[in-house]
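Duplicate of #3305? Posting structure anyway:
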């Protein structure tokens, strides 16, 4: 948003102040200023010149030879503007002067020398109109500097809109002026308005508000409007602030919006003479002022006349009711609508306007009649022949409650940590428009309506107002004294943090972050079919409307994007997925850990085994529990039909790990191996940790026995463990996989059994019965000793 300091100067006397320093102070106390522009500074020797004669150029059909009087010199000029004529007074740049940052020197144009230049409004930098020369009034004194005629020189600064999101009062120059008044200690002048009570004897407008999304609707009718073009200074301000001149009535509504932050709309009274505010039961087509036909749904609030829609409430008017150049009467609207409704309607329509941006911020309904009174004042100043033909009709449906706050000086001192006098507190609050009183013990503060809609609601907000005007840079830096207590982490938080530490520090994986929805375009590139799930009502793009059911496609998309940068890498994310809808109608969101491993140097089996190792480490290191893995049918089309396993712990399924379906793997990278896994972090965090059992190591040497076993097809390690489960930990201290060998369908493994005793050195004769018992139990499940 662009702010004109000339405009601010209408409401606050800033004479004698350093504007650059004041704007910097505004950044520190109120909102971030992105840039400052000094308008009109590149103009030099631009004066009002009178065209004395116009002759045809001997060598061109489009050019003319002019003699231009500047009061002290008559210049010969070559000009190609279509509206040149004798007696016309125009802005003229003398030879050696400057315009648009370019010095004007004597130049030969089509064989004739030209000394100086006649200017259009665009060349002066005050509008985008380049259709012809700017025509000055006939009574303009020749030779007058153009900057003395109009307020072309100005300081304009750009405010970051994001920093104003919670300040609806700052979306207009008057609200900004209030800030400058408080910062500079100068008085804020009241807005000049007409007294609308003078028209109470006139007929009201028929206004019917049929929907509670409209909080307030005020209207007024005016006729006999003779002037069609806005004053130059008004058009300059509009242009400097990012708008453009259209016609007087449209310009006035834009001017009031930029001045007060209150959007307004002017209907042609010949087309719209009464108002209904309502929603329709079914979608319909509606053509807006920009000429675009849009589909309006049943949730969008509309302004209607005799049942026919004429505007989208808070967003844009309709093409059929627009103000035209010959319009001489209007129905003026100044209204207030539900902020959420305007934002949602704007998003659905794909139409975000200056008006909708302001309504989204929760505007003050009390501004509605004031804006109309200000509009009428400006209109009558420009066109005294205009006549108000109705009383102000005001339908006030919803009022915000008055916010009153009470606090003592000790509260201020405790929050600020500095000494701010009572008088300084009262002065600051009153300068910002708060009703503030001090009874010797407590401050009583009445929050003004323009700050009470969403900004100032609690006592801490008042502290912010006091301190930011006082100046954060004026605070003395010192260390505060306060008790520090360790924050107790939840089970979920600990599980997340420990998981990230293990994945990053031990397995060197990279953490990524993504959104909760599938990216249909990226999934299509990998041949992954989108699964039906909950959809967003207003997605940023049709490709991003479906919420994801699992982490796999998201991580595989990241792998696909990053595969050119490294031959081997692994990524992970702890993110959210949506597993349908719960009984209460809300999304069933679950927190999941997703892992993807990619390699051009290792086999798919090696990556798959690494996933098994990672999951085993997570279970043992975080919960001191063992995961079990069991092959099963894939649940997603992109998973490998055979190499998909499900992960469980203590009888509860927690996730899965898999290789990719060959078709998907081929699309991702034919020369690489990729595996993927997912773990339910909510369920994992809820698992009860196994208690730590401490055991004194034996002072006596143990015995290690290696058994080489031939396993039948499909046998898993978990099926072997019961064979030695009845041996206590003091006897059998550990079982370790030493080696594995696969030949065809035959799988052979070597297990090392470590035996020990706390009382003496074990002999082979003591250990042999235990080993025989293990071999006997293994034989019962089809496991034989390998010869």
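Output from current build:
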């Amino acid at each position: 948003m662009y702010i004109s300091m000339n405009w601010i100067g209408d409401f606050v006397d800033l004479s004698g102040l350093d504007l650059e320093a004041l704007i910097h102070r505004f950044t520190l106390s109120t909102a971030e200023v992105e840039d400052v522009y000094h308008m009109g500074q590149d103009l030099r020797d631009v004066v009002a010149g009178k065209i004395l004669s116009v002759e045809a150029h001997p060598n061109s059909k489009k050019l003319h030879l002019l003699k231009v009087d500047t009061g002290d010199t008559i210049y010969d000029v070559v000009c190609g503007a279509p509206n040149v004529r004798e007696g016309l007074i125009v802005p003229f740049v003398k030879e050696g002067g400057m315009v648009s940052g370019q010095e004007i020197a004597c130049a030969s144009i089509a064989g004739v020398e030209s000394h100086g230049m006649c200017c259009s409004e665009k060349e002066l930098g005050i509008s985008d109109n380049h259709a012809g020369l700017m025509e000055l009034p006939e009574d303009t004194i020749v030779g007058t500097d153009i900057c003395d005629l109009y307020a072309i020189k100005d300081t304009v600064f750009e405010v970051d809109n994001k920093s104003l999101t919670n300040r609806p009062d700052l979306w207009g120059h008057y609200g900004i002026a209030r800030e400058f008044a408080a910062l500079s200690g100068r008085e804020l002048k009241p807005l000049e308005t007409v007294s609308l009570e003078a028209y109470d004897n006139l007929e009201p407008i028929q206004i019917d508000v049929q929907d509670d999304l409209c909080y307030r609707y005020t209207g007024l009718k005016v006729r006999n409007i003779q002037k069609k073009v806005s004053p130059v200074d008004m058009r300059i301000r509009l242009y400097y602030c990012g708008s453009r001149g259209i016609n007087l009535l449209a310009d006035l509504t834009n001017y009031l919006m930029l001045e007060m932050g209150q959007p307004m709309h002017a209907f042609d009274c010949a087309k719209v003479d009464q108002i209904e505010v309502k929603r329709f039961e079914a979608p319909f087509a509606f053509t807006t002022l920009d000429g675009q036909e849009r589909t309006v749904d049943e949730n969008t609030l509309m302004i209607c006349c005799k049942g026919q829609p004429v505007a989208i409430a808070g967003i844009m008017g309709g093409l059929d009711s627009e103000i035209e150049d010959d319009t001489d009467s209007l129905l003026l609207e100044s209204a207030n609508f539900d902020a959420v409704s305007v934002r949602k309607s704007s998003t659905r329509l794909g139409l975000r306007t200056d008006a909708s941006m302001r309504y989204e911020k929760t505007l003050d309904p009390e501004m509605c009649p004031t804006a109309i009174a200000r509009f009428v004042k400006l209109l009558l100043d420009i066109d005294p022949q205009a006549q108000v033909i109705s009383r102000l009709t005001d339908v006030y449906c919803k009022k915000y409650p008055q916010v009153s706050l009470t606090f003592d000086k000790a509260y201020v001192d405790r929050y600020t940590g500095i000494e701010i006098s009572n008088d300084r507190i009262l002065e600051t609050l009153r300068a910002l428009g708060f009703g503030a009183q001090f009874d010797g013990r407590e401050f009583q503060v009445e929050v003004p309506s323009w700050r009470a809609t969403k900004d100032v609601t609690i006592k801490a907000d008042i502290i912010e107002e006091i301190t930011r005007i006082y100046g954060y840079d004026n605070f003395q830096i010192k260390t505060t004294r306060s008790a520090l207590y360790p924050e107790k982490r939840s089970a979920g938080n600990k599980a997340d943090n420990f998981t990230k530490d293990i994945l990053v520090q031990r397995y060197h994986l990279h953490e990524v972050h993504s959104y909760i929805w599938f990216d249909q375009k990226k999934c299509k590139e990998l041949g992954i079919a989108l699964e039906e799930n909950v959809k967003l009502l207003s997605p940023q793009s049709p490709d991003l409307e479906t919420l994801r059911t699992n982490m796999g496609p998201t991580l595989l998309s990241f792998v696909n994007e990053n595969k050119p940068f490294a031959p081997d890498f692994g990524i992970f994310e702890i993110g959210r997925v949506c597993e349908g809808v719960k009984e209460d109608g809300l999304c069933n969101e679950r927190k999941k850990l997703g892992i993807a491993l990619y390699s051009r140097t290792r086999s798919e089996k090696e990556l798959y085994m690494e996933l098994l190792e990672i999951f085993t480490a997570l279970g043992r290191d975080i919960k001191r529990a063992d995961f079990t893995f069991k092959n099963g049918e894939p649940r997603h089309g992109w998973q490998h039909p055979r190499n998909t396993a499900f992960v469980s712990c203590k009888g509860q399924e927690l996730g899965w790990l898999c290789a990719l379906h060959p078709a998907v793997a081929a699309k991702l990278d034919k020369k690489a191996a990729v595996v993927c896994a997912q773990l339910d972090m909510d369920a994992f965090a809820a698992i009860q940790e196994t208690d730590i059992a401490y055991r004194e190591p034996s002072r006596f040497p143990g015995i290690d026995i290696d058994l080489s076993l031939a396993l039948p097809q499909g046998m898993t390690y978990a099926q072997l463990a019961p064979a030695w489960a009845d041996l206590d930990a003091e006897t059998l201290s550990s079982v370790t996989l030493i080696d594995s060998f696969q030949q065809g369908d035959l799988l052979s493994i070597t297990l090392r059994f470590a035996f020990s005793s706390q009382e003496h050195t074990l002999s082979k004769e003591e250990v042999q019965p235990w080993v025989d018992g293990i071999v006997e139990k293994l034989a019962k499940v089809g496991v034989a000793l390998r010869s």
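Confirmed duplicate; merging threads. The chain has six domains: 2-40+155-184, 44-152, 196-396, 404-474, 491-686, 703-785. Residues 604-623 form the longest helix (20 residues).
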